[in-house]
Design a protein that fits this description.
Strand content: 5-15%
Strand order of the largest sheet: 5-4-1-6-7-8
Shape: elongated
Largest sheet: 6 strands, parallel
Number of helices: 10
Distance between the termini: 22 Å
Number of strands: 8
Structural class: alpha/beta
Order of helices and strands: EEHHHHEHEHEHHEHEEH
Helix content: 40-55%
Length: 258
């Protein structure tokens, strides 16, 4: 582990962003998808679960196998709505993808997240985002609406690059944009087998695993072993007191289980 850390890259879902699973919110998004697909149904929730979610599982298997995110139009015309009006699906592909994301819940910044990011920037760190997700619209809206865009010098999304973690290329794109060397970078994420494995593949100087649910055990291997783990996002402030420093005595070592 390198203690000269100057760049901190964050995962989004499950790390910097958390989900509020409001049933009414989810149902509204599912109904909107049916409308955009030209499907008439008395039970949009059932239709969505039986058709769209089932097909998405097959798409996800493909995406993980090839470490690739499909363009929005391809996602719907090839995988999710291939038997529907293709002209309509192409026209609505962007909005369909946006609504699909909403079917998983309303996304908000993790508790203490915004304050922590601002303080890390004030301490001299350069921050960036490296995230896997479908859709090109959601993250930009989120960063702008929450006033967070100025704090991230690069935002790499698999929906833009078409490359998913743990594929090394998306990490290199982030480093190139901010002019970073791998040994001075830390990656913070909640998925050991994507976030941590990918960061270690490009030889990041440090990796931090997020474990907000202490009752969910970590399944560690030599390949996905992080440098440390945190239980709350603001703990990053304890680990990184100033740019180029790591408070080694504040690190919680990763162990199997809790």
């Amino acid at each position: 582990m390198n203690t000269d850390i100057r760049y901190i890259f964050l995962d989004l879902g499950g790390t910097f962003g958390v989900i509020d699973e409001d049933p009414a919110y989810l149902s509204a998004a599912r109904a909107k998808i049916a409308e955009l697909c030209g499907v008439k149904t008395d039970d949009a929730n059932k239709w969505f679960e039986e058709v769209i979610d089932t097909r998405y599982d097959k798409y996800r298997d493909w995406a993980l196998k090839f470490m690739c995110e499909a363009p929005e139009e391809v996602l719907w015309t090839r995988w999710l709505a291939y038997d529907m009006d293709q002209d309509l699906i192409r026209k609505n592909a962007s909005e369909l993808t946006y609504q699909y994301r909403q079917t998983k819940g309303r996304r908000t910044v993790v508790e203490g997240g915004a304050e922590t990011v601002k303080e890390l920037c004030a301490r001299g760190y350069t921050l960036g985002i490296i995230s896997d997700l479908v859709g090109k619209r959601e993250v930009d809206e989120w960063l702008d609406n929450d006033g967070l865009r100025p704090y991230f010098k690069t935002v790499q999304q698999s929906s833009i690059t078409y490359i998913r973690k743990p594929g090394p290329a998306i990490y290199y794109y982030a480093m190139d944009e901010v002019g970073a060397e791998a040994q001075n970078c830390c990656y913070v994420g909640d998925n050991l087998n994507r976030d941590i494995v990918g960061a270690k593949a490009v030889d990041f100087g440090m990796t931090v695993a997020v474990q907000y649910n202490k009752n969910k055990p970590l399944k560690l291997t030599e390949e996905n072993m992080p440098s440390a783990k945190i239980y709350t996002f603001p703990q990053l402030l304890d680990i990184f007191p100033a740019c180029g420093q790591v408070a080694v005595d504040k690190l919680t070592p990763p162990t199997d289980g809790q």
